[in-house]
Amino acid sequence: LFFSPPSQYKFRDLTIEELKNVSKTYPNFTFSMNTYTFKDGSQKDLLNFSGTVPVKYGNSYNIPICLWILDSHPFAPPICFLKPTANMGIAVGKHVDARGRIYLPYLQNWSHPKSTLIGLIKEMIAKFEEELPLYSLSSSDAARQSELLSYIAKITEGETDMKSRSKTGGRNEGCCNKITVVGAGDLGIACVLAVAAKDVADKVVLLDLSEGAAKGGAMDLEIFAVPNVEISKDFSASADSKVVVLTVNSLGNAQTYLDVIQSNVDLFRGIIPAVSHYSQNTVLLVASHPVEVMTFVSWKLSSFPKSRVIGVGANLDSERLQYMLTNLLKAEMLAKDAWVVGEQGEDKVPSWTSCNVVANQTEAMAARNSREKVANRAMEVLKGKGQRSWSVGLSVADLANSIVKDKRKVHSVSTLAKGCCNINSEVFLSLPCILGTSGVIEVVRLEEDPLVQEKLQSSAGSIHDLQQQLKL
């Protein structure tokens, strides 16, 4: 009888079908259930299969591999390792690290139903034919490296991660506030450093989804050992995060703006289900571009309630506006009620959440004109400020702080705008929101202003039209 995964596998029929295809194409593979220990020390019984794949590199070689299938398969990629014998050494390279962990673009861009186990193995073979991952050891070398190989074997089973964790004093066991940042580009690094600097979390995990070993800023974080920061390529490291920050953007060769966004959507299809699986009560904080669309995509792919999927939106612009009104234009009374709302870019607009009571309509009109004149001056100055990675990182830390510490503070963030300002479509726009541990607690009502409402409705229409063209 063909090996059948247990009932814990959520998409059992799909998994069985894939395993049948693997068994048919590579009959040497053997299937079993074993306990896998993740980096945080948690354990789970998972299906794994081991065997060899044929690789031509001058001569023909049979490369031994082991694949662990997560119980959310096929919506999450497998965890892949080389399985060297005693006379084999690991050739650390672009796609293999010193532990034998295998990293491939196929895994990074995993997206069901496009991605399959057969497709993964085929890419593995192709990459190994470009750069052979193992080499033969002499008998004396094999004897000297037996201890190393034993160490690697334990890591592939997750055992050594538990040991190293206990050596660190078990800080993770008491970790109650974890924040995960997905993406190790400039923005991801800026978010990690800002969150660490503001002491928002007990632990910050940087998920580096780039190929091969840690590069650039992620490597520097490792070198200089920033306290309470862990760098990982394994989604399981994000388990039980209070906030997951998404900073990734596709670097594909898309030709049009729509192609660029679709490429980001395809990237998110391999990320959102995985982080949602490991942190089912988290708040997703989206900083990827365009933030309104990618927040909508994250909401759809995660199936989270709308309150727990928010975009960074106009938080940075709002904080800047309030700072300028208070410190440069000496309009402190106006600043506390001033917000930038709508969509990021040229179509953002200043608005207000309350109005000072005045004696008559003439005074009300004069107060409104004075207020708008000051706001317009501030917005003109804001145009020249731009949004660099480090400034967005500080904004992300500000939002994460309000969420993790349940500050109940008002921020202008991208939230589902349906029902606001006569918007009837499912689009995300920046609106003043009270944030706490569950994400958006309440959307603060904006003062009625026909120009602001017209601007928001226009943005909603264009964003909705764009979303309709995407393939989710």
Automatic annotation (TrEMBL):
<dbReference type="InterPro" id="IPR016135">
    <property type="entry name" value="UBQ-conjugating_enzyme/RWD"/>
</dbReference>
<dbReference type="InterPro" id="IPR001557">
    <property type="entry name" value="L-lactate/malate_DH"/>
</dbReference>
<protein>
    <submittedName>
        <fullName>UEVLD enzyme</fullName>
    </submittedName>
</protein>
<dbReference type="InterPro" id="IPR022383">
    <property type="entry name" value="Lactate/malate_DH_C"/>
</dbReference>
<dbReference type="GO" id="GO:0015031">
    <property type="term" value="P:protein transport"/>
</dbReference>
<dbReference type="Pfam" id="PF05743">
    <property type="entry name" value="UEV"/>
</dbReference>
<dbReference type="InterPro" id="IPR015955">
    <property type="entry name" value="Lactate_DH/Glyco_Ohase_4_C"/>
</dbReference>
<dbReference type="GO" id="GO:0004459">
    <property type="term" value="F:L-lactate dehydrogenase (NAD+) activity"/>
</dbReference>
<dbReference type="InterPro" id="IPR008883">
    <property type="entry name" value="UEV_N"/>
</dbReference>
<dbReference type="Pfam" id="PF02866">
    <property type="entry name" value="Ldh_1_C"/>
</dbReference>
<dbReference type="Pfam" id="PF00056">
    <property type="entry name" value="Ldh_1_N"/>
</dbReference>
<comment type="function">
    <text>Interconverts simultaneously and stereospecifically pyruvate and lactate with concomitant interconversion of NADH and NAD(+).</text>
</comment>
<feature type="domain" description="UEV">
    <location>
        <begin position="1"/>
        <end position="138"/>
    </location>
</feature>
<dbReference type="GO" id="GO:0006089">
    <property type="term" value="P:lactate metabolic process"/>
</dbReference>
<dbReference type="InterPro" id="IPR036291">
    <property type="entry name" value="NAD(P)-bd_dom_sf"/>
</dbReference>
<dbReference type="InterPro" id="IPR001236">
    <property type="entry name" value="Lactate/malate_DH_N"/>
</dbReference>
